[in-house]
Specification:
The protein has 256 residues and is of the alpha+beta class. It is built from six helices and twelve strands. Helix 2 packs antiparallel against helix 3 and helix 4 packs antiparallel against helix 5. Bound molecules: coenzyme A.
Amino acid sequence: MENTITSEAVSAMSTLPLKTGIVDLWTLSTDSLTLADEIRMRALLSDEELTVVDKCRRVGERRSRLLGRALLRTVLTRYTGISPTLLQFSRSEFGKPALADPELGVAFNLSHTDDKVVCAFSRECNLGVDIEHIRYRKELLNIMDGYMSIAEKCRITGEPWPKQQKVFFDHWVLKESFVKATGDGLTQPLDQVEFHKLSGSQFEFRPVIHGKRTRWRSWLWPIDELHRLSITIDRSMRRRVMFRGFYVLPCQLCNG
Ligand SMILES: CC(C)(COP(=O)(O)OP(=O)(O)OC[C@H]1O[C@@H](n2cnc3c(N)ncnc32)[C@H](O)[C@@H]1OP(=O)(O)O)[C@@H](O)C(=O)NCCC(=O)NCCS
C-alpha cells in the first residue's frame, strides 16, 4: 500500500532489518515510566547526554529527554548490531545529530513533548520528525510573525476559535519537521517557505516567492486529540514510501 502507516505492538525488542523504501517511526509515552526504568536507561547514556538530561528543570522534560536518547540508542542497536553504550554520535553545525560512522547507513531524527517521544529512521534519506502537544493558549497566535507566511497566517486566523489552535499546531509541527529535516534549525526564514497539501496526510514545501517545489515532502498525522506528528523526508527517497509504526513501553527498552 502506498504511503501507509502501520502499527505494531512490540512485545520484545529483537534485531530488526531496516529496508529501503521504508521509514520506521518509534513512539514511546512517559506515562508508565518508573524509577527503576529511569535508572536502567541512565546506564545507556553517555556522560554528555546525562548532563543535558540533568540540566532540565521540568520533570516532564527531563523524563522525555532521557527516554528520547534511550529509545534512540536501543533502536539503533537493533539496526546496526552495535551495543547501545558503544554508539557514537556527531552533530552538524546547527546541532542535528547523526551517527558518527556514516558507513552504518542509518539516518534518524527524534522529537519529544513532555509526555511522548518519537524517533524516525531511514536507510536512504535525510529526514526530520516533530511531535507537538496541542496547548490551548491564546498567546501562541501572537508568535506567528517570522514563522508563518501571509497565506498560512490567513489560513490559521480564518478558523473559528478553538479550531484555530489545532490548525496552528498543524502548521507548527509541519514547519518544525521541515527545519529538522534540512538541519538548518531556525537559521532559515520560515515565513518564506510554505506548505501545500498534496493529498490526504501528504504535503510539500514551496518557497513563497517562486512557488517551485523543494526537495522536501512531508506527512502530518494526528496521533490523538492532543498530539500531532509530522515527518519530512528528502525526495531522493523513492516515490512510494512505506511507514512502519512501533509503539514501545519504557520497561521494554531496557528488558528487551
Ligand atoms: C531543533 C529545533 C528545530 C527543534 O527543537 P524542539 O522542537 O525544541 O525539540 P524537539 O524535541 O522536537 O527536538 C529536539 C531534538 O532534535 C534534534 N536536533 C537538534 N538540533 C537539530 C537540528 N538542527 N536539526 C534537526 N534535528 C535537531 C536532537 O536530537 C534533539 O534532541 P536531543 O538533543 O535530545 O538529541 C530547534 O532548533 C528549535 O530551536 N526550535 C524552536 C521552536 C520554533 O521556534 N519553531 C518554529 C516552527 S514554526
